[in-house]
Amino acid sequence: MKKILLTGGNGFFCTRFALRYKNTYEILSASSSMLDITNEENVTEIFESFKPDYVIHAAAKASTEFCDKNPELAYKINVTGALNVAKACKKSNSKMIFLSTEQVFNGNVDAGPYTEDDTPSPDTMYGKNKLEAEGLLKEVLDELWVVRFTWLLGMPERNCSMSPNILWGTLTDIMLGKKTKATPNEYRGLTYVHEVIDQFPMIFEIPYGIYHLGSHNDLSRYDICSLIFKEVGLEHRMNELLEKETEKYKDHHRDVRLCTDKIKSYGLEFSDSKDGIKKCLKEFKIKL
Ligand SMILES: NC(=O)c1ccc[n+]([C@@H]2O[C@H](COP(=O)([O-])OP(=O)(O)OC[C@H]3O[C@@H](n4cnc5c(N)ncnc54)[C@H](OP(=O)(O)O)[C@@H]3O)[C@@H](O)[C@H]2O)c1
């Protein structure tokens, strides 16, 4: 059995990945208390005892707001921590998959979808950290996949963590009777997390390099929220519970969509975001 080390093992992606593949791989899903990636000695110890074939480096501070407010800590975790993991991969001959983000394009002026050949120009600390880490990791490791995710979505699951996502966020607002605010001026790829997890091992078979991964989406954030209301049978409550934020990004639409043709050419397939959301609601049998 191949061995996989998951950093950030207690997070949204890794808790689901570890459950899905517990009988396929020998997995060490390392929470931050077991493996603090900012502590080089701790990283070395874990690598020496587990000797992973693959490392999925998911550990990060992924909140844009947190990173902007705490730039030094964000850098320490998102850049220096990633570098510690890459150096350990190099020493132990482990192959590394670095989970990066569409947010490396959040300051680009031209609209997406962006390809892997477009030059990212991030304007948040989180986007800047991830881009810098991508570059530093490439200097350390040849056996490296950098996978830039679109925004993932999913539902709460047993023994799994949650992170903010548009589907669960909208449903939570509905259940709390709180108005959801959504702009018609923002476009992002939104991907059902299990579509990513189900196909993830295919990445181990493709050439090293940078890949954009996830669903394409033609709908604005407002249209996606409207779709969620309709799909759960609450179209009649949209006037009361969904507010169109027309002013936000009015002068310059925000568009951080990724072109995922490169990874699709290696056989990974994704529903478009609308169908991914419908699939998730169907799998979790959600009707309100
Ligand atoms: N979810 C998305 O939509 C999305 C989109 C694009 C890219 N990504 C990237 O994909 C990866 C996984 O995302 P996710 O949603 O699963 O994130 P998540 O739920 O926030 O998980 C990240 C994990 O990293 C851990 N961590 C933080 N500091 C650490 C440290 N010093 N040492 C070790 N672990 C540490 C956190 O542990 P604590 O809870 O103990 O702090 C947390 O469990 C991240 O790198 C993120 O940037 C995610």
Write structural notes for this entry:
With 288 residues, this protein is an alpha/beta fold. It has 2 domains: 3-153 and 191-216 and 258-264, NAD(P)-binding Rossmann-like Domain (Rossmann fold, 3-Layer(aba) Sandwich); 166-186 and 218-257 and 272-283. Helix content is 39%, strand content 17%. The chain has helices at residues 12-20, 40-50, 64-69, 71-92, 125-140, 166-176, 193-199, 221-231, 238-241, 261-264, 273-283, and strands spanning 3-7, 26-30, 54-57, 95-101, 144-149, 151-153, 180-182, 186-187, 190-192, 209-213, 242-244, 254-255. The longest helix is centred in the first third of the chain and has 22 residues, at 71-92. The mean pLDDT is 97. The protein binds NADP nicotinamide-adenine-dinucleotide phosphate. Residues 7-8, 10-14, 32, 35-38, 58-62, 77, 81, 99, 101, 149, 151-152, 161, 163 line the site of NADP nicotinamide-adenine-dinucleotide phosphate. The site of NADP nicotinamide-adenine-dinucleotide phosphate has 26 residues, from α1, α4, β4 and β6.
